[in-house]
Amino acid sequence: MMSEMAKAGRQDWIDGARAMLPLLPGAVPFGMIAGVVASNAGLDALAGIGQSIVVFAGAAQLASTQLIADAAPVFVVILTGLVINLRFAMYSAALAGHLSALPRWRRWLAAYLMTDQSYALSVLRYTARPQMSLAAKFAFYMGGAIPMWTVWLAATAAGYFLGNRIPASWSLDFFVPLSFLALIVPSIADRANAAAALTGGAAAVIAWSLPFNLGLFLAAVAGIAAGYAVEKLTPKQGEDA
Amino acid sequence: MDNQTIWLAIIVIGIGTFVLRASFIELGGRFALPSPVTRALRFLPAAVLSAIILPALLRGEAGGLYYGLDNPRLIAGAAAALVAWKTKSVLATLAAGMSVLWAMQAVL
Fold first, then answer.
1. What is the model's pTM?
2. Residue A216 binned pLDDT confidence (cut-offs 50, 70, 90)
3. What's the rounded Cα separation, in Å, for the pair B66 and B74?
4. How far A132 CA lies from chain B's nearest CA (Å)?
5. Could you tell me the end-to-end alpha-carbon distance of chain B, in angstroms, rounded to an integer?
6. How high is the ipTM of this complex?
7. Which of B52, B82, B85 should we substitute to test contact with A (largest number of A Cβ atoms within 10 Å)?
8. Which are the contacts of A150, defined by CB distance < 8 A and separation ≥ 6?
9. CB-CB contact of A139 with A16 (8 Å)
């Protein structure tokens, strides 16, 4: 019985890792850019690589590092990072029904390792197999999350040391908007998200001269409102993708 | 920004992010996000990221926003957006954007 359970657990770890494997190469350029941008922004090696351990969230790291490079006030840096990470509360809500019964340290470990990828893969798997045990759910989650963490950290470190050798005239800071473009453009699958993106971008440009990067927050609110409005006005067809 | 302030930012973002990630898992599924909030959050990535992207593409050499079509960042960003849309490939997007930027910087 015990060994059977351990065996099932091992298979779930492997399944989790297998599901994550095709998503790992996509994390490499982002991690490297996070490292390059951190070194160009003047962060020392400990901070540049350490943020990948402490924060472990690519988009927030890129945006906050860029703001540090632009000499923004510290509360703007913090607020921007946290606003970008608000989506994790939504993932947490989606995973709660599956992971809340875990012992505290396992819950915290799973929370710490949460990424867009681990959330998406796990919820898909849990939904497809409603009879999965708690142990199996945890094993599947960690099987994917640990390789993702390792790749992210290695890629950031590689990027940091590479970035140290590249002169500023190469404009490597341009990788920040480019990586966000690579993230966001393919994900704009419906009109509501397109409206959110266009409105958010336009509002940020209009409000650009406001102090403390306030334009970013206004733009977020305007973009969300636009997405929400378009969704309300669009006749439903097929529901959520 | 000095090293201490940078670490302050990293640690506060780190703790805040952990709290966001743990939030509903710790509440034990007893509370759910009201559905208008979930739906609003769905638009957050698109809204925030393009609010970062667009001003960065319009940044002129002098520091302010520059709308001219001879702004290398604007053209490179437009090319990258097109590639991102057509290929959905991260590497192709980065390569297209950087090569157009470098080419324009070399020519102008």
1. 0.82
2. confident
3. 9
4. 18
5. 33
6. 0.86
7. B52
8. none
9. yes
